[in-house]
TrEMBL record:
It comes from Shimia isoporae. This is Peptidase inhibitor I78 family protein. Pfam families: Inhibitor_I78. The lineage of its organism: Bacteria, Pseudomonadati, Pseudomonadota, Alphaproteobacteria, Rhodobacterales. It comes from the Bacteria.
Length: 93
């Protein structure tokens, strides 16, 4: 194999590795357990920011002051937003 082949192969590996690293960072945001501090980065963002974020199995997205059941689930993430869809708070319960 010539030097040119090695350079092309090395460049390909570096490019793929860089892409994988970026994807991993995006997917790693959030958590499968409910810890409000983990989801604070969502506050102030649009509800659509939840797409692509790792969340617990139980998630309840609701508008501020809307009626909700009073049952408590420690692993449920509650995402509260305003009428415009801006996330105001994230809580467990």
């Amino acid at each position: 194999m010539g030097i040119k082949t090695w350079v092309v192969a090395l460049a390909s590996v570096v490019t793929v590795a860089a892409c994988l690293g970026e994807e991993e960072d995006t997917v790693s945001k959030g958590s499968e357990t409910c810890d409000p501090a983990t989801f604070e980065f969502l506050i102030g963002q649009d509800v659509s920011a939840l797409e692509g974020v790792t969340v617990p199995e139980m998630v309840r997205v609701m508008e501020d002051n809307s009626p909700a059941t009073m049952d408590f689930h420690e692993n449920r993430l509650n995402v509260i937003h305003d009428a415009d869809g801006k996330i105001l708070a994230v809580r467990c319960g």
